[in-house]
Amino acid sequence: MDARVRPLRIPPEMAIYAEKHEIFDLVQTLVKHLVVDKPEDPIQYLINVLKRDSVDVPRIILIGPPASGKRTIAKKFCEHTQAIHITHSNILKDNTDLIRATQQYQEKKQEIPKDLWIQLIQQRLSKTDCLRRGWLLEAIPRMQEEALRLQEAGITPDHVVMLEAPDVVLIERSLGKRIDPVTGDVYHVTFKWPESADIAQRLETPRTVLPVDAIAKKIQKYRTEAHALKFTYQNCLKTINADQPHVDVFAQALNFVLSRHRSASPFTPRILLFGPLGSGKSLQAKLIAQKYGIVNICCGELLKAVSADEHHMGELIKPYLESEQQVPSSIVLQILTERLSRIDCTIRGWVLHGFPHDVDQAEKLHESNFIPNRVFFLELTDDIAVERVMLRGVDPVTGEWYHSLYKPAPSPEVQARLWFNPRDSEAQLLKRVKEYWCNAVGLQAFYPQAVCINADQDPHTVFESLESRLVGRLPKVLPNTEIY
């Protein structure tokens, strides 16, 4: 980087490294910790934060009415994310001065003072296991005042999951609830019965099971605070219908927790589009480039443009194109990397289609330091792909493309003069589609975070799917997690 040159040419490797290691987000997180915790020794404090296994750990609050399945979902969360499960009861199990002070109120059957309760939560979350692995607060906070006090203490979640279900369902679940006294797991006589006969035999009816009227009052008490809690956590809240199998509830909640909030870090799009012939790669690349001002690079069109040039590289590839032979990968890569290195691609970003065709080419592109940050596979059945291409013709007078089914010619005269590519026979197209799918398996493995999108839809629907994943951040992958 030469400081004497204006504008400054920042090497693309810097942006790739910063995005890969999320440097900008790391700095934001460190500043946030400093502002919230206000340590006496900021430098040593930041060193200690960076020494943790991960700065970006789960910080989750799970709330919901009685019998909405909080305990079941919380346990599954912690199994998948390795976060520490925090409940009202296990906070009070430690042997500390604060706990002993709390026990005095419990022995007198008095309510724990709010300030003391917040200190207890703060003390538990400041322990090493929560700092390293993250935490999940189950049914904490219970009211808005408690939520605001937690915020004042610097305890802010990244994700809040609120479970909801009709009162009738909640009452039925409460009456049928059973507890495993060994593990503490919650089951239900109708909705969730254990597969093991040994577990089923030892299940007990909870001592806290109340009459219907009392259950209804608890639900109503929760609902009086729920609206205020929604307002408090509106920027990081997702409400999920709990009146469905717990597996489905957990899948929705996990997907939400693995999602990440919009980042303020600089982002230069580097997009790869894959798909069989007829999947609409050219159209989608054009739409993306038009809306976001990034550079649209079709490898085939780029080679044609270079061959029209009288320079050395143009003369080199012209014989291949004239004889309809495949240009060697080494030459294509040399032309492509030169184009991607230009300042417009560096500053505005790029969307590339038509290259790479296989894993070997993908590896060479990666070695050249042109690493995409979004990869999409436009999926289409073989029959639809062949139909889209075989019935497509161009009007030699206007240059307009038409299709016998999707966009018929406006008149018999135009239909009569349409030109159909003789290479687009059904046999040839099926052969090309088969070649694509042979390479697609390896390419999907090479780009594990690639997104597959159904291309057999209206083009603007496909574009909306692409756009939503282009603008939003990729979900984070925690140890032992799968994205449902």
UniProtKB/TrEMBL annotation:
Natural source organism: Triplophysa rosa (Cave loach)
Q: Which Pfam families match?
A: ADK
Q: What are the entry keywords?
A: Kinase, Nucleotide-binding, Transferase
The stretch of residues making up the signal peptide is none
Keyword Iron appears in the UniProt entry: no
Superkingdom of this protein's organism: Eukaryota
The protein's name: Adenylate kinase 8
Record-linked InterPro entries: Adenylat/UMP-CMP_kin (IPR000850), ADK_active_lid_dom_sf (IPR036193), P-loop_NTPase (IPR027417)
Q: Which GO terms describe its molecular function?
A: AMP kinase activity; ATP binding
Keyword Glycoprotein in annotation: no
Q: Which family does it belong to?
A: Belongs to the adenylate kinase family.
